Amino acid sequence: MFSGGFLEIGFILFIAFLLFGPEKLPEIARTLGKSLGQLRRASDELKNSLEEEIRNLDQPRELRSEPETDTEPDPPLDHGYDYSEPTDEEAEPRPRG
Question: Helix, strand or coil for residue 85?
Fold first, then answer.
């Protein structure tokens, strides 16, 4: 749209001056500057986190810093039904008779 030349920027500032007046223009510029700074910080944070995740994916599995567990992971549930066998504590007592 605009190449950012002196005439284009001057034209935009002139229109803003006419629309908002000399009292409101500094306040609007300050608010716009703060918003752009927050947007830039959020963008940099997202970029850094994505780059970190890409570096983690590129590392071999042995070098990744994942917490190790002593137990095997639970088998996946198929449509809400658990096919695993109950332990002794979970098993219901069978009636004798």
Answer: coil
Task: Report the distance separating Cα 68 and Cα 64, nearest Å.
Answer: 11
Which residue's structure tokens are 């223009």? 25
Residue whose pair of structure tokens reads 């944070």 in the numeric block:
45
Contact 2, 8 (CB under 8 A): yes
How many helices (DSSP H) and strands (DSSP E) are in the chain? 1, 0
32 CA to centre of own chain: 24
Residue with tokens 């549930």: 77
pLDDT along the chain (97 residues), means of 10: 75 89 88 94 95 87 58 61 64 61
**pTM for this predicted structure:** 0.45
